[in-house]
Design brief:
alpha/beta; about 280 residues; binds flavin-adenine dinucleotide; eight-stranded parallel β-barrel
Length: about 280
């Protein structure tokens, strides 16, 4: 099923889980995903490369998830340090696997820019290329608090519009902890003439270190309530996790009350936190 078909379903909340290809412990990833199967995710998205360190596609994982575990998998793909020829080669690999959807990204600019090839400067150029060369259905990334390189949110949304005009069908957002940032973003996105689904990215809190790492890399605010609880439970990792589940549950409940079309969980390859949140939300899903 492609992205348009998935998100045109009106009756239920569309769930998707994001995972990354682990360096080791691949069986553990499959075990964690098996636990998430009962939530009937419409998509499992698999990240690709990081900070310009592009790799070959994780075809083994994609095949396992798609053909043996029967998930609808959506590989991510970044263009920043890839030549046109490499991009084309990878797209052919994806299509040959029978995958229907792709999350098309620019990727982060590596510190050593000399490693970089600039056949594609921005994600909209990659999206245009994918649209032209393949039948894949394309998702793109959005940033409720603005992308870190962007001078302001308005400019970032203008650039988001380029991705939609190039052929993106769905927007998955960067994680955020303050729903008001998301609601206000969606309002601005709609005013900019973007009418495709905007799916909130949810990062369950597992530890203070993890939150600080994620928010340090991007423009993401930490609400006062969260800061206070981090301070309160600073010596108790279990209490932080408990607070994380409560916070994530309230955050998702409010998003569902405001009729989001789906929830996209950044699972960090662990089923527990997303499962606990979803179990708490049974009535609303
Ligand atoms: P773009 O949309 O190209 O935007 C990058 C910057 O350039 C923005 O500031 C934008 O405002 C500006 N811009 C865009 N187009 C133009 C234009 N035409 N002219 C001028 N300025 C422009 N990274 C990975 O490496 N692997 C992953 O698997 C991965 N998965 C992700 C999943 C999600 C849901 C999200 C939100 C992010 C993910 N990222 C991943 C991170 C992403 O690669 C970085 O945030 C990257 O810095 C930007 O990628 P983009 O596709 O949003 O870029």
């Amino acid at each position: 099923m492609n992205l348009q078909e998935i998100y045109s379903e009106n009756q239920k909340t569309i769930l998707s889980f994001e995972v990354f290809p682990p360096d080791t412990e691949i069986e553990s990833l499959y075990g964690e995903l098996a636990k998430l199967k009962k939530y009937s995710p419409a998509l499992i998205s698999l990240t690709y490369g990081a900070a310009g360190k592009n790799k070959e596609f994780s075809t083994g994982i994609l095949t396992q998830l798609k053909d043996r575990m029967n998930f609808n998998v959506m590989p991510h793909f970044t263009c920043i340090c890839n030549s046109k020829a490499t991009v084309e080669k990878n797209l052919a690999i994806i299509e040959k696997l029978g995958v229907e959807n792709i999350l098309a990204l620019r990727g982060d600019i590596p510190e050593d820019k000399t490693l970089c090839n600039y056949d594609f400067r921005y994600a909209n150029e990659l999206i245009e290329f994918i649209k032209h060369k393949t039948n894949l259905s394309i998702a793109s990334a959005g940033y409720p608090e603005g992308h870190i390189e962007s001078p302001d949110l308005k400019t970032d949304i203008e650039n988001l519009k380029r991705k939609v005009d190039a052929g993106a069908s769905v927007i998955y957002t960067q994680l955020f902890f303050d729903n008001n940032k998301f609601f206000s973003y969606v309002e601005k996105v709609r005013k900019a003439g973007i009418n495709i689904p905007v799916i909130p990215g949810i990062m369950p809190v597992l530890s203070v270190k993890q939150v600080n790492k994620m928010t340090g890399l991007a423009r993401i605010s930490i609400p006062d309530k969260m800061k206070k609880n981090f301070e309160k439970y600073k010596n108790s990792p279990e209490d932080i996790k408990k607070f994380g589940t409560e916070y994530g549950t309230c955050q998702c409940a409010e998003l569902l009350d405001n009729k989001v079309k789906g929830l996209h969980f950044f699972t960090l390859n662990k089923a527990r936190a997303a499962s606990e949140i979803l179990d708490n939300l049974k009535e609303k899903l």
